[in-house]
Amino acid sequence: MTSKLEAVENNIRRAAAEAGRPATDITLVAVSKTKPNDVITPVLAAGHRTFGENKVQEAAQKWPILRESYPDIDLHLIGPLQSNKVRQAIQIFEVIETVDRPKLARAIARISAEEGRHPRCYIQVNVGQEEQKAGILPQKADDFIRLCRDELKLPLEGLMCIPPAGQDPTPYFTLLKEIADRNGLNKLSMGMSGDFETAIRCGATSVRVGTALFGDRPPLG
Ligand SMILES: *Cc1c(COP(=O)(O)O)cnc(C)c1O
């Protein structure tokens, strides 16, 4: 388990060095979705603190108990967020990476104020303009960034994407970076087990890695 963590960290360091970037610029988000706590605990014990989950309900079941032993966890929501789960998400997550529509952004702003908890936010961009995929369309991203950051005053850190499967992700990662650069955002959550080295070459500041750390998941996990 922790040897996989070391291997992924080494690969991140190598990709960063090849890109001429300091490895400290890149955060590893360990994607623990579908994995039980006894699989997550060794990674926590090894000192890792940044994790990603894609379902609010599953995170609510797993993480409160882990936090009792490891209070400094930085938990990221990386899956779609329904409006009726916003309050629970705000209570559980330090970061919401999947802000992708005005209604959701407004709900996060309102409920964050009510809860007195303000998770850092990323806007998910549907870089491949895929019908079945979440994310704001690239041509609507600038306006949506303005709404989130300037009007709603969300603590917007950057942008997140999941490029189309089975294609070279480079143009999609590059597109995400262009949108971030022209809007003065400097964090990019992009790259998964299969393509995080490419994402680092394209400017990723965090990579979301599940399989390479925790092994395979059941289908549709
Ligand atoms: C599951 C998931 C990941 C991790 O994928 P792996 O290929 O297992 O590394 C990354 N990002 C999102 C949004 C995910 O849902």
Quick one: how many beta strands? Answer: 8
Please, what is the average pLDDT?
97
What would you say the CATH architecture is?
Alpha-Beta Barrel
Give the CATH class.
Answer: Alpha Beta
**What would you give as the CATH superfamily?**
Alanine racemase
Pfam families: Ala_racemase_N
Organism: Paremcibacter congregatus
Modified residues (N6-(pyridoxal phosphate)lysine): 33
Protein name: Pyridoxal phosphate homeostasis protein
Tell me what you see in this structure.
With 221 residues, the protein is α/β, with parallel strands linked by helices. It has a single domain, classed as Alpha-Beta Barrel (TIM Barrel), CATH 3.20.20. Strands 7-6-5-4-3-2-1-8 form an eight-stranded parallel β-sheet. The longest helix has 17 residues. The two termini are 19 Å apart. The protein binds pyridoxal-5'-phosphate (PLP). Pyridoxal-5'-phosphate binds next to strand 8 and helix 9.
Question: What is the compact description of this entry?
Answer:
Residues 5-218 form the Alanine racemase N-terminal domain. This protein has 221 residues and is α/β, with parallel strands linked by helices.
Task: Summarize this structure as a short list of keywords or feature phrases.
9 helices; TIM Barrel; globular; binds pyridoxal-5'-phosphate; 8-stranded parallel β-sheet
